[in-house]
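Final paragraph of the annual report: two paired records, presented back to back.
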Amino acid sequence: MLRYREHRDAIDALLRRFQPLQPLRVEPGAAIPGSFWGAPEAGLISPFIYLRDDTPVHSALHEAAHFICMDGARRVALHTDAGGDVAEEDAVCVLQVLMAEQLPRVGRERLFADMDAWGYSFRLGSSTAWFEQDAEEAHAWLRRFGLIDAHARPTWRLRA
């Protein structure tokens, strides 16, 4: 599984493009503030995403995508549980894949493998099958809120 320590500079640079989101590093072995699943998973307390060297890359991207996809009112009050409905959760999963494509030595195929290993569950049995065959509504959701362009590239904006 890909870990934050292996991609720290690239992940931090990518996440900082989504101002005011700020990645903060947590010391090895320390508790991760705002982690819904517990260490080593990423934590969210607006506007900070907490990452430890052993945080999985998919977790860092997933939690950042929650911050990006939620509306401004929820973002201000964000502490640990991102909430949201099924459509938003699907959009978060798509956006994390699209962000992985922006990271050298990560990409969608490696992220799919890590998502499946972690236990993400999708109707079609794998993250790859879901993304390729069943994620059009999530793509449309992201386009509707201006979070990706017509070519499925991140726009580096937050949902209003």
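The closing record of the year follows.
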Amino acid sequence: MNHKTTSALALQLLCLTMFVALPMQVQAEKLAYVDGRRLLDETHQSKDELRILEQNFSERNRELKEKIESFKAQEAELQKNAALLSAEELRDKADALRGLQRTLQHEQQNYNEDYARSRNQVLARLEKLIFAVIIELAEQENIDLVVQQAVYASHDIDFTDRVLEELNKRYQQQ
């Protein structure tokens, strides 16, 4: 082997050693995993906030469902009596039903958008609270890294129950 080949081989070996050793040096000493979906689903805050949201939208939802049922009944009535109506009466009633259908579709779309926006606001507030508790507990317990999404996490590093316990404790103190 010549000098250039030996130097290049030594440099490659040094780089390989650094790449293998580097992850070991930056490895966190204490890791934790939290199941964010479970935290959103199981905290008392989440359950109450979502129950309140449902209550706030229940009347509007009920009214919309009644309007839709009324529309369906009117539509069925028109189909049933179509043979008894003149062409002009049938056209007028069909036009009125199409207008009512457009109005109902617009109301349904507005309801869905309002509900989704309100639900997203509630979830954003809850996520902010959950993240604050996770950070606080991680600092208290000297955890170096908390991950929320993982393909696999052992039960030894699952921090979800601890966060859930703290969230529910804080909720009880309110």
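The chain has a mean pLDDT of 87. This concludes the annual technical report; the extension proposal builds directly on these records.
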